[in-house]
Each structure stands twice: as structure tokens, then as C-alpha cells.
Automatic annotation (TrEMBL), chain A:
Function: Part of the high-affinity ATP-driven potassium transport (or Kdp) system, which catalyzes the hydrolysis of ATP coupled with the electrogenic transport of potassium into the cytoplasm. This subunit is responsible for energy coupling to the transport system and for the release of the potassium ions to the cytoplasm.
Record: residues binding ATP: 338, 342, 371-378, 389
CDD domains: P-type_ATPase_K
Provenance organism: Silvibacterium bohemicum
Alphabetical list of NCBIfam families matching this protein: ATPase_P-type (TIGR01494), kdpB (TIGR01497)
Any Pfam family matching the protein: Hydrolase
UniProt-listed Gene3D superfamilies: Calcium-transporting ATPase, cytoplasmic domain N, Calcium-transporting ATPase, cytoplasmic transduction domain A, HAD superfamily/HAD-like
Assigned keywords, A-Z: ATP-binding, Cell membrane, Ion transport, Magnesium, Membrane, Metal-binding, Nucleotide-binding, Phosphoprotein, Potassium, Potassium transport, Translocase, Transmembrane, Transmembrane helix, Transport
Listed SUPFAM superfamilies: Calcium ATPase, transduction domain A, Calcium ATPase, transmembrane domain M, HAD-like
Keyword Transmembrane listed: yes
Name of the featured protein: Potassium-transporting ATPase ATP-binding subunit
Annotated membrane topology: Multi-pass membrane protein
Automatic annotation (TrEMBL), chain B:
UniProt-annotated location(s): Cell membrane
Primary location class: membrane
HAMAP family the record matches: KdpA
GO CC annotation terms, alphabetical: plasma membrane
Coiled coil: none
Stated role: Part of the high-affinity ATP-driven potassium transport (or Kdp) system, which catalyzes the hydrolysis of ATP coupled with the electrogenic transport of potassium into the cytoplasm. This subunit binds the extracellular potassium ions and delivers the ions to the membrane domain of KdpB through an intramembrane tunnel.
Transmembrane segment boundaries: 6-28, 66-84, 137-156, 177-199, 256-275, 287-307, 382-407, 428-449, 492-516, 537-559
NCBIfam families documented for this protein: kdpA (TIGR00680)
Name of protein: Potassium-transporting ATPase potassium-binding subunit
InterPro entries, A to Z: KdpA (IPR004623)
């Protein structure tokens, strides 16, 4: 999934062309009042055209007008169908991942039966073995397995799913690579996360979001105003002895009502959801995407989001009279068998700093001592020497057992490192404490820039951590978050969200554990990690398939982009009307009042070509703006004022100028082709 | 245009800006219920009034209750005025023995004064007795103005308050507006006007023997003019004591009285923007709204001044240039004592402010000058607008501007911390819609109906269209000025214009109050760098753009067949 489709994918285009026609059904059109008015106008002119043809009246101009009115409706439908088509293409890949698979359901008596995945119901228990596909969304209740989730996430490295804890959720359509797991199915067919997302991107179940409704009201209001301005123009025209034909009046009306935004509005919404999917984020509703654009406060968990999940060795501090090389050498030796990221980072640091390469351990008759909960140390025994590394307490005990003690300087260093928020590991060889290894939280690369980006958008970031305030402050400063909540318990997170919301702020957060679920539900935008528990996924309103918490930033940007695209095209659409007036009004009345040609500032060739050019421009601009509607306007994290200045200039002033050029151009073409 | 003329305009602006801030801050105190320097005198009066009327001053109202109180109050005063007009012949202070007013005219006039329009289909000095003028009409000059201010203040409260179910008490707001704002200001302005020569008496009309027509003596109307004149301007009412309104030497005798009258109509609407800034806690926003209004007003003044100063294209062989020794330009329908500057300033102000008083004949302006006064009203009477009504009308446009701007910065729109949602947009669009609906539909019917609409029209062609369009626009905008050239004292115009005025006032007030109530109960979002600031010059430009675009797009077709066509035909020597 998550492949970007080319905008002009021929399969989608041809489907969209068909969709454009089927959407002409007035019941469908009624959902979009602006385009419905255009359709009614087209039907009206078609009827009159037929009447004219029967009565052998000249129809060349009226025919062209009628055709272009229909094109206007079709182009708008095409835009919507195209957005839906792109969504459908996404959905199909999602669906392919699902497919029909066999599941081995455990019956009440303990026996196992083979059923099709579509037969599974919430609460069923299935067993999946290595090589089999997981038949539905569920929760691991027994066993550990490595699972290939590349069909959903595109990430090829397998992930571990196990019963209990925060990695218990599995998604239908993924494949178990090794071992086996027993899964409790958590959703009925058609109700899985994937199903809901498919429905959303396909646009079938799309409901208008609150902001879309508000904008639709604005557009409907404008449409009524123009309907009024045009219908009352006829009486004024009759009074002035210059009555107009229905063709001309409908043309004026269609040109004035906001067809550009009216035609593209739903495409913009669908495309916004689609963009999220491309980022591997599934949203439960369009409302959540809009809310993302409004987020004021972002809660970020320290571990995994701000820092790499694990602490890493960054420095060696030898004890008095011990050389750093000796400490590094011993530390590396003690860590060779330590497969934890911390252990590996010690090996790497020793190698990078002191060029200590791996050595042939087989000849050294080494015996590895793994970490145990009792001793809280790990290390290595060589003939005559035993090297240990562990926390200061554990090593002190180790030394005491042999009648030695931790030197004062070493324990001072241990305290200093702890104060700075690091984790000190003490290394000892027999009765000698060699020194301290400084393990530290490492802030993810590039995070600082991303947080700065958020600040520029006006979003405040708060780091949540279980660390003490001192440690938290160090990391917070290093990462560049605006604030932090230290020694946080799950309830504290919830309280913080409520506090922020009471101030009227919208809060976004990510989470994966079951204990995150209440907070995820409380937050305005709760992004659950796909690797997290089912409870977390149910509570949030988005799921990140890549389980990458920093993706909140992209989510916020997509939300903003969605709203900006709507605003920009609305402004553009309304600004366009100025030029259309200057094209059509003089064309309507110059026959009776030649002086009104003074308003024909574009010097359009004839009244017919002027009206036709405006109508054609109005239809073509919808097509021309489809890419913008689908891709969204460019978003840069800037202050609101500078964003507005830019967009007003591009879409407001641009919206006034572009149609003057466009209409004049079309007029030249029409005249050259002798069409009007 | 002359340096002297511009100097007059600049002096006017300087005085206005100097006075509006203290008045605006004072009004904020009045409507927040704080102590003012007039409390020792007025507080006892206020308390007594509440006790007499059974008003519980401390109990606040939700928007529906506020609206119902406002509507009930207005309906009752409308009926009262209707009654007074109908039976004025049996009431006192009628030295000229004027008869009771005919039904349609009485209806039209009652609607007109209740809605702060002061459209006058009648000739006051031959129709209304002193009693009717003072009790029936001057009463409304105070009350309708106070109602407008009260409703505007309620909207400002809606913007300022957080999660509040109420928006103030209608009776308290109206009472305090009259007692603390309108009456004291009138007491300052009326004597100043009397000092300039405006009359104030209850005498019967004076009969004067003129040299020209010894057989037919001239009747010179009298009356309590100065007291009405002050509130006529301050409350942006505009209903003249005499037919010729502020062009009459007894209403507006000198250039200084002219200056005072323009200032009086400007004062409260301008000061209310300061009140908005103070009460909403964003004085910058108040100034941004003021700047938008000032910009639009200034463009109007400039255009009228420029087009009226130009020589008439069809007058040849005459020096029409404006100079120290002659007024020049288009002097038709203007008073020489005001000149083109004084008339342009007055005309732009009276049409922007929804006042409707006139000191010149708008019908006699050049087509472009006439188009500007008409367009000023077509913008919806929000460029300062009527007292109160201008501010709330403008704030509806602010809601729309903020909605579009909010989208363009990538947030769901918010205005001073309040989210603008579907309901607010719906009400704002309703507000914006009602205005053109009444104007365009009734004008369209009138031009198609030779018996009803066209029979009382004095001019044909585009000029005639402008006259009818102006009448309905003036009524819907609650302006009340007449373009003239159209006899509106017919059953058709009296009745339809009466309804137009009521629609333009009350149908628009209700959605506006709904916005006030809806905003009041919302939570407030604290501003962040991501929020679009409503106190910047960028906001002023955006707001101005939205107003111009909505106004222009709505009325351009009608204008193109009216004044624009007339202007173009005039260049070719065709007159109407």
C-alpha cells in the first residue's frame, strides 16, 4: 500500500469518466446545491434547444452554450469521481491484503475447524501458525510470533506480536512468519478497521465534516444571491427594452455561482483522506482530519517518540589510575554477549572511540554471564578474571562480596551522571572498579527541526516522561520541546489533556498501550500505533500503520492543507466573478446600448464569443484545478498572517487576474475557429 | 477639487478621531454597567424608571428573550405612532389644523421611524402636527437609535463572553443608551445648532408678503426644529422636520452647522468601534474595523467630490471650473452655502451612516456621484452604518471574512477565540441574503408594473430605474434618504416600502442576535501564532475586499443598467 499513484493514471481516469455520467442522477446532484443549479440550468437550455431545433431556428450559439453547461456539470462530477477512484485504488490494495483466507477456529469443545475468514465473528478464537495469514483483526491471547505486516505498512522487517503487554494487536491480512499464536477476533466482518477505512477512502460512506457543512452553507447562500441577481436582471432588462434569452441568463448565472469550489469541494475532502492513507495513517472520520489542522497542543511520549527507544553509551569515565582504554576494553568484553541495544551501543562506542575491534573469543575460553534479575549484572568470566557491568548498587555489592569497595570518585561520577538524566553503568574487573559508562537518552535525529516546524505552526509540544523532573528538563532542552510533564503516571496524562482542553485547546497525542486508551479517547486527535493494543486502537481516531509517533506532524499538516485548499479555491472562485461580469454584462446589453461596450475592457470580439468564452473558461477552470484539489495547496509552516498574505495574493488577486487572461485567450481561439 | 475642500475634509477627520475614542470608552463603561461621571445625576433617574416599569435590571437575557423583548417593544411603539398619526387632528399642538394621516402613509411613516429609517413619503410641514413630530416621531428618533445600539452591544457581549447563556438585558441597554449617551449628547448639540440659527418654537406658520407675488403670500413653516435636529443626526435617523431636510436654512443654516451635523451622524457609529475594541478586549480589532469603515467612507467621499467637481459635459461656453470666486462643478441641487465639498461630505456620510438626512438633491448629482451614494447604501449600511446597526452589520461581514481567512491559514475559522461554525455561517448568510432579496425582488416587480411602479415615476430610462432602485435600497438599508424623482406617496410604494423597512431592520436583527447568542455560549480558544489576527492591516484589507466583492457582485447587473448606463449615455449627450 501507500504507493503514490500518478495523477493521470489511465485506469482511474476512465473509471472517473464513467462515474461523471452516473453522477448526473439528480438525487446525487442534490447533495451539491451549486452543481445542482448548473444541472437544472443545463436541462432547461437543452429543452429550449430542442424546441428551437424543431422550429428551425438557428441553434449554433445556443448549442455550444448548452454543451458547455453540461461539460461544467460533468467536469465537476469527474473531479469527484477521480478523487473517489484514487481512494478506491487505495482501498483495493487494502482489500487485496485482506482477501479471503482460511482460518482455524477453535470450537467450544477445544477442537479446531477450518472456516473462511468471512465467517469469523467477534469473540472467535483462531490459531495461526507459521506461514499462514491472519484472518481478521484481533488480539493475541497466547504465544509469541514474528509477523510480516508489510502488506499493511510496507515495512519489510517482521515485527513481534505476543500475548499480554502492548504488542498484542494483530491486523487481518498480515502473515505469521515463525512460531504460532492464538488470537481472539475483535471485529465482525465489514467492521474491521480496514473495512471502515476502505469505506472512507472510497467516499461511499463519506459524511460531510462540520467545516465542509459550514462552507457548503456559504456557497449555497452565494448561489441564492446570484440566482436573485440574475433573475431580477431580466425585469430590469425588459424595462430597458433589452430583454435577454434564457440561454444568456443561464450562462451568466452558471458563471457567477461558485462552481469552481462547488465542483471540487468533495474531491478536496476525499483527497485529504487519501493523502493520509499515503502516509500510512488510517483515520476513522473526516472530522478527525479537520481537527488535526486545529491542534494547539501536542503530547509526545519521551521514549520512542522524542528519544530512540533505548539509551546508548556515549562516554567512558575511568576510575582514578585506570586508563580509558582499559575501561573501554573491559566494557566491550563484558558486552559482547549482551544483545540488548544498550550492550551493543557499548561495543560500538569502544570500537569507534578506541578502535577496539572484535576479537576471537573462542581461543580465550570465555564464559558469558548473562544478565539476571537477582544479580542485576552481566559480564564475562575469563580464566582468572571476571568482568562485570551493572548498576552502581549491583557492582558495589559485587565488590563488597570480594572485600573491596567502590572508590569515592566513581560513586561521585555515578551520581553526577544520574543527575544529568543519564544512566551510569559501572564496570569492574575482579576487585577493581574500572570506571563508569555513561548511557544516555539520544534525541532522534532531525527531531529538533520538526519540533521547530510545529512551533512555527503555532503548536505547543509537551513531552511526557516517567523520568524525574531534572532528567526530563535535560532531554526537553535537548529536543527543543516547549514543556514537559515529568514523573507522569497514566492519570497525569489524562489530567493534562483535560486541563489543556478546559483552556479551549485542541490536543493531539499518540499512544500504544492499553493504559493510553482513556487519554487517546479524551484527546481531540488520538493516533494509535498499529503495533499497540486493540484497546488503544479502538480509543483513538487514527491509526498509524508504521507505528511512528512523529508522524503526528504530517497528520497536522495534512489537516491544515485540507482546510487551506478549501479556503483558497473558495476565494479563487469568488474572485473570478469580477472578470466574468466584465465579459458578460456588456455582451448582454451592447446590442441595445452600444455605449456599454465601454465595459468590454477585454475587447472580446462579439457578444456571442464573449458569453461563450466566459462559460468555457468557467468549465475548463474546474478541470485545470483538479490537480490542485487532489494534491492540496502548498503548505509551509509560517505564521497565520504570512500564510494568509500569500494565499490572498495567489488565489485572491490571482483569482481576479487569471480569468481576464483566460477569457480573452478563449475568445481569440473561438474567433480564429469561427465558432462565434 | 480644491485645497480648501480637502482641508475641510481633513479638519473634519481630525475632530472626529479626537472625539470618538473618549466617547467609545465612555460607552463601554455605560454598557458594562460601570460607574460614569454622570452617575450622580442619572443613576437615581435610571433606578426610578426600572422601578416604575418593573424591570429587573440585574437579570440577564438569552438571545431569544432579548430578541422577543426587542420585537415586542418595537411592535408596540410602531402601533402607537400609527395611532398618533391617524388621530393627530384631535390631539394638541396642531396650530395648522392638519388632518389625520391617511392609512398607507401612516403605516409607512410608523414603519419608517420604528426602523430608524426615517423615509418620508410625505411633506412634513403640510402633513404632521407638532404633536406628531415631537411625540410620535422624535420619540422614535431616540428609541430606534437606542434599540440599534443595544442590539450591537449584545453582539459585542456575545463575542467577548465565554460559555455564557446570556447577552445582557434589553431594557437596561436601551434605557442606559438613552439616558447616558443620547440625551447628554443632544443637550450639547441642540444649543450649538440654535446658536447657528436653527429655530426652536411652537408658533403657527408665518405668512410673508413677498415683492414678487403680492397676491399669493408665502407661508414660512415654523416649529421645534433644533431639538429634533440634534437627535435626527446623532441617532442616524435622518427624518427632516421640513421636506427639504438639512438643505432647509432653518434646519441647517451655516457651514458650521453643516459641519456639526455631519459630525453628529458620524460620532456614535465611529465611537462604537472603540467600544467594540474595549469590550472584546482587543482594541486593535476595534481599530481594524474602524480602518475598514474609514477606507470605504473615504473612497465614497473622494468619488462624489471628484465627480461633482467636474464640469458638465453638455454645458459649453461656460466656465465651470471650481475656483476661489465660484463654486463650479455640478451645482444643480446643491446649496451654495455648503458648496461641493460640504455636500459631498454630507452625502457620503449620510448614505454610509444609514442616516438619510440630506443637504442636497441626490437626484441632481452626476450619474457617477449618484451611483456612489446608491452604492454606499448597497454595501449594506455597514460603513459606520446606523447607530448600532452599522456595527452589528459590519460584524456579520467580519464573521464571513474570518471564515474565509481562517480556512486559508489552515485552521477551522475562529474569531477572537470563538470557532465559527455552520450555525454562525448560516445566520450570517441569512443576514446578508435578506437585504438584496427585498431590494431586487421589489424593484423588479415595480419596473414591470406600469400601474403601480412606473406611474409615479418622473424620469424614464436608466435614471428612472435608479430612482426606484434607490427607494427600495434606501428602505431596506434603513437609510431613509430619497433620490427623489419618484413620488413614493402612493399605495404601492407606501405599503411595499413599509415592509421593506421592517424586513431590513427586524428580519436582519434576528439572525444577528442568534449569532450573538451562539457565540456567547462558546468556549474561547486562546490565540496562538497559528491563529489569524483580526487586528492587522491585512485583516482590514481582507474585510474591505469581502464587503466590496459581495456588494459589487450582488448589485453590479442592476447598476450597469442604471447609473453606469446613464453615465455612458450622458457622454454621448443623451439625458433622462
Amino acid at each position: 500500500m501507500a504507493e503514490k499513484q500518478s495523477l493521470w493514471n489511465p485506469a482511474i481516469l476512465s473509471q472517473a469518466a464513467v462515474g461523471a455520467l452516473t453522477k448526473l442522477d439528480p438525487r446525487t446532484m442534490l447533495k451539491n446545491p451549486v452543481m445542482f443549479v448548473v444541472e437544472v440550468g443545463s436541462v432547461l437550455t437543452t429543452a429550449l434547444l430542442i424546441q428551437d431545433a424543431i422550429n428551425h431556428r438557428p441553434i449554433s450559439f445556443n448549442l455550444q452554450i448548452t454543451l458547455w453547461l453540461w461539460f461544467t456539470v460533468l467536469f465537476a462530477n469527474f473531479a469527484e469521481a477521480m478523487a473517489e477512484g484514487r481512494g478506491k485504488a487505495q482501498a483495493d490494495t487494502l482489500r487485496k491484503a485482506k482477501g479471503e483466507t482460511m482460518a482455524y477456529r477453535q470450537k467450544a469443545d477445544g477442537t479446531v475447524e477450518a472456516v473462511s475468514s468471512s465467517m469469523l465473528r467477534s469473540g472467535d478464537i483462531i490459531k495461526v501458525e507459521a506461514g499462514q495469514f491472519i484472518a481478521g483483526d484481533g488480539e493475541v491471547i497466547e504465544g509469541v510470533a514474528s509477523v510480516d505486516e508489510s502488506a499493511i505498512t510496507g515495512e519489510s522487517a517482521p515485527v513481534i506480536r505476543e500475548a499480554g503487554g502492548d504488542r498484542s494487536a494483530v491486523t487481518g491480512g498480515t502473515r505469521v512468519l515463525s512460531d504460532w499464536i492464538r488470537i481472539r477476533i475483535t471485529s465482525n466482518p465489514g467492521e474491521t478497521f480496514l473495512d471502515r477505512m476502505i469505506a472512507l477512502v472510497e467516499g461511499a460512506e463519506r459524511q460531510k465534516t462540520p467545516n465542509e457543512i459550514a462552507l457548503s452553507i456559504l456557497l449555497a447562500g452565494l448561489t441564492i444571491i446570484f440566482l436573485l441577481a440574475v433573475t431580477t436582471l431580466q425585469p430590469f432588462a425588459i424595462y430597458s427594452h433589452a430583454p435577454q434569452t434564457i440561454f444568456v441568463l443561464v450562462s451568466l448565472l452558471v458563471c457567477l455561482i461558485p462552481t469552481t469550489i462547488g465542483g471540487l469541494l468533495s474531491a478536496i475532502g476525499i483527497a485529504g483522506m487519501d493523502r493520509l492513507v499515503q502516509y500510512n495513517v488510517l483515520a476513522m472520520s473526516g472530522r478527525a482530519v479537520e481537527a488535526a489542522g486545529d491542534v494547539n497542543t501536542l503530547l509526545l511520549d519521551k521514549t520512542g517518540t522524542i528519544t530512540l527507544g533505548n539509551r546508548q553509551a556515549t562516554e567512558f569515565f575511568p576510575a582514578p589510575d585506570i586508563s580509558t582504554e582499559r575501561l573501554a576494553d573491559a566494557a566491550q568484553l563484558a558486552s559482547f554477549s549482551d544483545e540488548t541495544p544498550e550492550g551493543r551501543s557499548i561495543v560500538v562506542l569502544a570500537k569507534e572511540k578506541y578502535n577496539l575491534r572484535g576479537r576471537d573469543l573462542t581461543n580465550m575460553r570465555v564464559e558469558f554471564v548473562p544478565f539476571s534479575a537477582q544479580t542485576r549484572m552481566s559480564g564475562v568470566d575469563l580464566p582468572g578474571t571476571s568482568i562485570r557491568k551493572g548498576s552502581a548498587d549491583a557492582i558495589a555489592k559485587f565488590l563488597e562480596q570480594q572485600g573491596a569497595s567502590l572508590p569515592r570518585k566513581v560513586s561521585d561520577k555515578v551520581e553526577e551522571i544520574a543527575r544529568l538524566g543519564g544512566t551510569p553503568l559501572v564496570v569492574a574487573e575482579n576487585t577493581t572498579a574500572l570506571g563508569v559508562v555513561y548511557l544516555k537518552d539520544i534525541v532522534k535525529g532531525g527531531l529538533k527541526d520538526r519540533l521547530a516546524r510545529l512551533r512555527a505552526m503555532g503548536i505547543r509540544t509537551i513531552m511526557i516522561t516517567g523520568d524525574n523532573p531534572l532528567t526530563a528538563a535535560v532531554i526537553a532542552r535537548e529536543a527543543g520541546v516547549d514543556d514537559f510533564l515529568a514523573e507522569a503516571k497514566p492519570k497525569d496524562k489524562m489530567d493534562l489533556i483535560k486541563r489543556e482542553q478546559a483552556k479551549g485547546k485542541l490536543v493531539a497525542m499518540t499512544g500504544d498501550g492499553t493504559n493510553d486508551a482513556p487519554a487517546l479517547a479524551q484527546a481531540d486527535v488520538g493516533v494509535a500505533m498499529n503495533s499497540g493494543t486493540q484497546a488503544a486502537k479502538e480509543a483513538g481516531n487514527m491509526v498509524d500503520l508504521d507505528s511512528n509517533p512523529t508522524k503526528l506532524i504530517e497528520i497536522v499538516e495534512i489537516g491544515k492543507q485540507l482546510l487551506m485548499t478549501r479556503g483558497a479555491l473558495t476565494t479563487f472562485s469568488i474572485a473570478n466573478d469580477v472578470a466574468k461580469y466584465f465579459a458578460i454584462i456588456p455582451a448582454m446589453f451592447a446590442g441595445v446600448f452600444p455605449v456599454l461596450n465601454a465595459l468590454n475592457i477585454m475587447h472580446l470580439a462579439t457578444p456571442h464569443s464573449a458569453i461563450l468564452s466566459a462559460v468555457i473558461f468557467n468549465a475548463l477552470i474546474i478541470v485545470a484545478l483538479i490537480p490542485l484539489a487532489l494534491k492540496g495547496v502548498k503548505y509551509e509552516p509560517k505564521s497565520a498572517a504570512s500564510l494568509l498574505r500569500r494565499n490572498l495574493l495567489v488565489y485572491g488577486v490571482g483569482g481576479i487576474i487569471v480569468p481576464f487572461i483566460g477569457i480573452k485567450g478563449i475568445d481569440l481561439v473561438l474567433t480564429a475557429l469561427h465558432l462565434a | 477639487m480644491t485645497a480648501n475642500g480637502w482641508l475641510q475634509i481633513l479638519i473634519f477627520l481630525a475632530v472626529l478621531i479626537a472625539l470618538m475614542r473618549p466617547l467609545g470608552l465612555y460607552m463601554a463603561r455605560v454598557f458594562e454597567g460601570e460607574r460614569t461621571f454622570l452617575d450622580p445625576v442619572l443613576r437615581p433617574v435610571e433606578r426610578t424608571l426600572y422601578r416604575l416599569c418593573g424591570v429587573k435590571a440585574e437579570v440577564e437575557m438569552g438571545w431569544r428573550e432579548y430578541g422577543v423583548a426587542m420585537l415586542l417593544f418595537s411592535v408596540v411603539s410602531l402601533l402607537l405612532t400609527y395611532l398618533i398619526e391617524r388621530v393627530q387632528h384631535i390631539l394638541p399642538w396642531n396650530p395648522q389644523k392638519l388632518a389625520g394621516v391617511e392609512q398607507a402613509l401612516a403605516w409607512n411613516t410608523a414603519s419608517s421611524f420604528t426602523t430608524n429609517t426615517n423615509w418620508q413619503s410625505y411633506v412634513p410641514e403640510t402633513t404632521m402636527s407638532y404633536f406628531t413630530q415631537m411625540v410620535g416621531l422624535a420619540y422614535h428618533n431616540f428609541l430606534s437609535a437606542a434599540v440599534g445600539v443595544a442590539v450591537a452591544v449584545a453582539l459585542v457581549r456575545g463575542i467577548a463572553r465565554k460559555q455564557s447563556a446570556t447577552i445582557g438585558n434589553f431594557w437596561v441597554d436601551t434605557t442606559r443608551c438613552i439616558l447616558y449617551v443620547l440625551l447628554p449628547l443632544c443637550l450639547v448639540i441642540a444649543p450649538l445648532l440654535i446658536g447657528q440659527g436653527v429655530i426652536q418654537n411652537l408658533h403657527p406658520y408665518t405668512t410673508a408678503q413677498t415683492l414678487e407675488h403680492a397676491a399669493t403670500p408665502q407661508t414660512i413653516a415654523q416649529g421645534p426644529v433644533a431639538s429634533q435636529e440634534a437627535i435626527k443626526m446623532l441617532g442616524t435617523n435622518g427624518g427632516g422636520f421640513f421636506n427639504t431636510n438639512s438643505a432647509h436654512p432653518f434646519e441647517n443654516p451655516t457651514p458650521f452647522s453643516n459641519f456639526l451635523e455631519i459630525l453628529a451622524m458620524f460620532l456614535i457609529p465611529a465611537a462604537l468601534t472603540v467600544t467594540l475594541g474595549k469590550m472584546s478586549g482587543s482594541s486593535g480589532h476595534g481599530w481594524a474595523v474602524f480602518a475598514c469603515m474609514l477606507l470605504l467612507w473615504f473612497v465614497g467621499v473622494f468619488c462624489i467630490y471628484a465627480s461633482e467637481s467636474r464640469p458638465h459635459p453638455l454645458l459649453h461656453g461656460v466656465d465651470q471650473h471650481v475656483s476661489a470666486s465660484q463654486a463650479g462643478g455640478n451645482q444643480e441641487g446643491k446649496e451654495v452655502r455648503f458648496g461641493i465639498t460640504g455636500t459631498a461630505l454630507f452625502a457620503a456620510t449620510t448614505t454610509d451612516e444609514s442616516c438619510g438626512a440630506v443637504n442636497g438633491m441626490h437626484d441632481s448629482f452626476t450619474p457617477l456621484g449618484g451611483m456612489v451614494v446608491l452604492s454606499n447604501i448597497m454595501l449594506g449600511e455597514i460603513v459606520f452604518g446606523g447607530v448600532g446597526s452599522g456595527l452589528y452589520g459590519m460584524l456579520v461581514y467580519v464573521v464571513l471574512a474570518v471564515f474565509i481567512a481562517g480556512l486559508m491559514v489552515g485552521r477551522t475559522p475562529e474569531y477572537l477565540g470563538k470557532k465559527i461554525e455552520a450555525f454562525d455561517v448560516k445566520m450570517a448568510m441569512l443576514y446578508v441574503l435578506i437585504f438584496p432579496v427585498v431590494i431586487l425582488i421589489l424593484t423588479a416587480i415595480s419596473v414591470l408594473a406600469p400601474q403601480m411602479g412606473l406611474s409615479s415615476l418622473n424620469n424614464n430610462g436608466p435614471h428612472g430605474l435608479t430612482e426606484i432602485l434607490y427607494a427600495f435600497t434606501s428602505a431596506a438599508g434603513n437609510n431613509g434618504s430619497a433620490f427623489a424623482g419618484l413620488n413614493a406617496n402612493t399605495h404601492w410604494y407606501n405599503i411595499t416600502l413599509g415592509f421593506t423597512m421592517l424586513a431590513g431592520r427586524f428580519l436582519m436583527m434576528i439572525p444577528m442576535l442568534a449569532i450573538a447568542g451562539n457565540l456567547a455560549q462558546k468556549r474561547s480558544v486562546p490565540p496562538s501564532p497559528g491563529t489569524f489576527p483580526v487586528n492587522s492591516s491585512l485583516f482590514t484589507i481582507l474585510l474591505t475586499g469581502v464587503i466590496l466583492i459581495v456588494g459589487a457582485l450582488t448589485f453590479f447587473p442592476a447598476l450597469s443598467l442604471g447609473p453606469i448606463l446613464e453615465h455612458l449615455l450622458l457622454q454621448h449627450g443623451i439625458l433622462f
